[in-house]
């Protein structure tokens, strides 16, 4: 058989393996599909500098890039398997067995994986071996490999071979995309749409007059759900059935608690505007958003469980096994830490943690904002490191005071005269006292602050600038309610959040 046909046979076999595995994963869980399982293992095992590089390079598209990269590597390996199989079919089988073994190992070691998690990789590898045999050593393969006697029979044999490859690949694509579509259409979406959220016992304060500045290009005070940033390690979004959801409060407590979704909704709810920020947010970045959250206060719930002495950390676990650790004292100091069930007037979006997530004012998400929550374990920082800590991030992540210029954007060309400079600033659970803007190396000028609903949200600000012709750099800094001025020292996001003054360079005609 010509080498190019062997390469096609390998690709077709790999396509069948992945497509069939995706279809089987509809029954065993999306995280058991080989591409997702292997990608998840790569995420967990990759060194912290490599992860930071991926986030810097691909930003919020890092998961897509990882899956595409894994698929490209698989395609290259499949071509190699096909080329080897032309010379030795047993060696081709060995290559497929290696692919299946990697998938089995990755799927079986994912957090919460059961015995059935290995089925997608096993079934996919077995069918891939059958396809490889059919295309390389079966009637189609032998005919396509036969020496040329006449042009017509040889061309006919190759057309049959290519048709078989097309059918196998097309069927695999239908199975793969169909399986993925079925996985996303499981009844979680319907269950979410059927939920009626209870009225809060303590509603959110109405937005004060003037909280929303009418400045084009300025981020809205409340971030719409569709625009709210999403950063997590989940290659596929967990789809948790609220009817089967359970929350366990366990560990070093006097009274372990288990709640189902109905019991949680029956508890008194509070509603609050709270700003969340990702520790990966660069100075001036947009990995931050403000929403109106509805949930059960976390402090009283932990008090019911009765933390034992020394339990200074609350470890939250996600349905996909991810963990984060929050200081117990922060969750119980009276701030509006909550188990959120609603976001901006609707049940949590699935990608933002449905049915339940944790929201804590003043802590970066990597130590607090657990989505798809299933467990809270009381332990200590000395006894347990949550997911990001062994990967080089600080165990405690209080949000740093920051400010951002939203308009004008960097690189804009402006007309001389009056220009409105505007943005947002935040000092979570402390509040913003003042925002100042500086042009080039001039004096700091006070901006006008819009009102905010609480110290747990960002605040909009604006400043009128009489722009003169030339190249100019605008900088912004904030002062929190204690009088502490935002540092101008530039530091990277690792290990506990970026610092520095946001600056934009503009040209004035």
What secondary-structure arrangement, pairings included, does this model have?
Elements: H1 3-28, H2 34-45, H3 48-58, H4 62-87, H5 89-108, H6 119-136, H7 139-145, H8 151-184, H9 188-193, E1 246-251, E2 257-260, H10 261-265, E3 270-277, E4 288-297, H11 298-305, E5 313-318, E6 323-327, H12 328-331, E7 338-343, E8 346-347, E9 357-359, E10 373-379, E11 402-407, E12 413-414, E13 417-426, E14 432-439, E15 445-446, E16 448-449, E17 459-467, E18 470-480, E19 502-508
Parallel strand pairs: 1-10, 12-19
Antiparallel strand pairs: 1-2, 3-4, 4-7, 5-6, 5-10, 7-8, 7-9, 11-13, 13-17, 14-15, 14-18, 16-17, 18-19
Helix pairs in contact: 1-4, 1-6, 1-8, 2-4, 2-5, 4-5, 5-6, 6-7, 7-8
Quote the distance from N terminus to C terminus: 68 Å
How many domains comprise the coordinates?
3
Question: Over the alpha carbons, how many angstroms does the gyration radius reach?
Answer: 28 Å
Number of helices: 12
What's the rounded overall pLDDT mean?
Answer: 90
Shape: globular
What structural class is derived from the secondary structure elements? alpha+beta
What profile does the largest beta sheet have?
5 strands, mixed
* Count of β-strands: 19
Helix content: 25-40%
The share of residues in extended strands comes to 15-25%
Low-pLDDT segments, ≥5 res: 148-153
Strand line-up across the major sheet: 2-1-10-5-6
């Amino acid at each position: 058989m010509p080498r190019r046909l062997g390469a096609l046979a390998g690709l077709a076999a790999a396509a069948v393996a992945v497509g069939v595995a995706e279809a089987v994963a509809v029954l065993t869980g999306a995280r058991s599909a080989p591409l997702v399982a292997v990608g998840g293992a790569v995420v967990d095992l990759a060194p912290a500098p490599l992860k930071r590089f991926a986030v810097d390079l691909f930003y919020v598209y890092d998961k897509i890039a990882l899956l595409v990269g894994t698929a490209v590597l698989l395609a290259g390996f499949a071509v190699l398997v096909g080329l080897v199989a032309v010379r030795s079919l047993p060696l081709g089988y060995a290559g497929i067995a290696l692919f299946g073994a990697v998938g089995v190992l990755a799927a079986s070691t994912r957090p919460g994986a059961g015995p059935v998690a290995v089925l997608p990789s096993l079934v996919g590898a077995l069918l891939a071996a059958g396809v490889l045999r059919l295309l390389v050593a079966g009637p189609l393969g032998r005919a396509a490999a036969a020496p040329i006697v006449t042009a017509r029979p040889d061309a006919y044999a190759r057309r049959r071979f290519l048709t078989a490859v097309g059918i196998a690949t097309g069927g695999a694509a239908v199975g793969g995309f169909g399986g993925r579509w079925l996985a996303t259409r499981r009844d979680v979406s319907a269950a979410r749409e059927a939920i009626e959220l209870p009225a809060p016992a303590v509603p959110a304060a109405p937005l004060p007059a003037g909280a929303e500045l009418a400045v084009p290009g300025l981020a809205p005070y409340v971030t719409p759900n569709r625009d709210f940033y999403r950063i997590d390690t989940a290659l596929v979004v967990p789809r948790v059935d609220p009817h089967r959801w359970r929350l366990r409060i366990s560990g070093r407590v006097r009274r372990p608690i288990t709640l189902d979704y109905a019991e949680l909704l029956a508890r008194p709810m509070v509603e609050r505007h709270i700003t969340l920020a990702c520790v990966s947010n660069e100075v001036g970045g947009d990995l931050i958003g403000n929403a109106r959250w509805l949930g059960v206060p976390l402090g009283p719930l932990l008090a019911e469980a009765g933390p034992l002495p020394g339990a200074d950390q609350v470890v939250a676990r996600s349905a996909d096994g991810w963990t984060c650790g929050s200081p117990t004292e922060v969750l119980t100091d009276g701030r509006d830490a909550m188990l959120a069930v609603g976001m901006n007037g609707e049940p949590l979006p699935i990608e933002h943690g449905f049915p339940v997530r944790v929201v804590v004012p003043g802590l970066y998400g990597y130590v607090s904002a657990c989505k798809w929550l299933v467990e809270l374990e009381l332990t200590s920082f000395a006894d347990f490191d949550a997911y990001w800590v062994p990967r080089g991030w600080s165990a405690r992540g209080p949000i740093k005071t920051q400010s951002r210029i939203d308009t004008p954007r960097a690189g804009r060309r402006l007309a001389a005269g009056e220009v409105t400079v505007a943005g947002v600033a935040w000092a979570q659970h402390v509040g913003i006292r003042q925002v100042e803007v500086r042009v080039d190396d001039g004096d700091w000028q006070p901006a006008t602050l819009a009102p905010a609903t609480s110290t747990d949200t960002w605040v909009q600000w604006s400043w009128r600038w009489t722009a003169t012709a030339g190249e100019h750099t605008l900088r912004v800094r904030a002062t929190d309610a204690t009088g502490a001025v935002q540092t101008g020292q530039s530091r990277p996001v690792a290990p506990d959040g970026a610092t520095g003054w946001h600056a934009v360079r503009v040209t004035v005609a």
